[in-house]
Each structure stands twice: as C-alpha cells, then as structure tokens.
Amino acid sequence: MKQWILFIGGFLSFLAVVLTILILILGNKSFLDVEKSAIAQVKNENLLAEVNRSYVYSNDQTSVTVIGTDGEGKLKAVFVPMTGQEISETALEGKINAQEARDIALNDMDVKEILHTKLGMEDEVVVWEVVFFTENDKLNYVYVSATDGSIWKRILNL
C-alpha cells in the first residue's frame, strides 16, 4: 500500500511539473510569434537594417517595440502596433537610455527588485516604463520621458 501511495504521489508531482512547463511554453509562444512578425515587417519596410532587441509593450494599444540600427548606423526604435494604427519610429541618439531612465525612476525609492525597463509609446510620448518592487513588496510603475528624462507618470504601491 505504501508503494502505491509513493507511486501516485510521484506521478502526480511529475504530471504537475510537465503541465507547468507546457503552459509556460505555450503561453509565451504567441508573444514570440508577434515579435517575429513585427521584426519581419520592420525589415521588409527597411525601417531597420539590424535588430538588437524586441519586446511586447502593453498599454491601451499593445505594440511591439523593435530597437536596432537603420541603414546609416543610427540607433532607432520602431513601434509596431498589433492592431489598426500606423507604425511609428524615433531616433534614440541624444535621448535618455534605459540605464538613465532606471536611475531617474528609482531615485529616492527603496528598491528590492527591478522587473523590467521597456521603451514604449504612451499618448504619442516615447517613455521608458520601469517596473519594480519596493522593500515592502509593493509593485510600482514609473514612466520616464525618453526625450527629456522627466517623470511622465507614476503608479506606486500596488
């Protein structure tokens, strides 16, 4: 009887691990497909010659941010909306970079863990979204303007 209990417990544990891995893989597949499609679109339209990074940026209008260099070797970001709107782009030379945005956003904050820093478009303003946990385990979003480094919006202590 003890062997059956051990067998069933082991089997259920194995099944839980397999299902968790499967859910994680299938859940991220749609994001990867959308990113690949956005990168292909950016390259087909000759907006970027080389892609360095891409990720999904979510706000009212979900889009894919593709960062890379254009044909002249200048660093640019291209924002590819998932539905309806036109592609927009911005040169990143002379703008606030991710590390500077983090430094601005985290100034005078007790940060426990930084979750991510992403470039995106909010109401026609290019912003860095810095997401982090404070020491008291509260989730915080700080949006820093990529143009001048000002705080565009804060959502604190969630």
TrEMBL record:
<feature type="domain" description="Cell wall elongation regulator TseB-like">
    <location>
        <begin position="38"/>
        <end position="81"/>
    </location>
</feature>
<protein>
    <submittedName>
        <fullName>DUF5590 domain-containing protein</fullName>
    </submittedName>
</protein>
<dbReference type="Pfam" id="PF17881">
    <property type="entry name" value="TseB"/>
</dbReference>
<feature type="transmembrane region" description="Helical">
    <location>
        <begin position="6"/>
        <end position="27"/>
    </location>
</feature>
<keyword id="KW-0472">Membrane</keyword>
<dbReference type="InterPro" id="IPR046350">
    <property type="entry name" value="Cystatin_sf"/>
</dbReference>
<dbReference type="InterPro" id="IPR041401">
    <property type="entry name" value="TseB-like_dom"/>
</dbReference>
<dbReference type="Pfam" id="PF03413">
    <property type="entry name" value="PepSY"/>
</dbReference>
<feature type="domain" description="PepSY">
    <location>
        <begin position="95"/>
        <end position="151"/>
    </location>
</feature>
<keyword id="KW-0812">Transmembrane</keyword>
<dbReference type="InterPro" id="IPR025711">
    <property type="entry name" value="PepSY"/>
</dbReference>
<keyword id="KW-1133">Transmembrane helix</keyword>
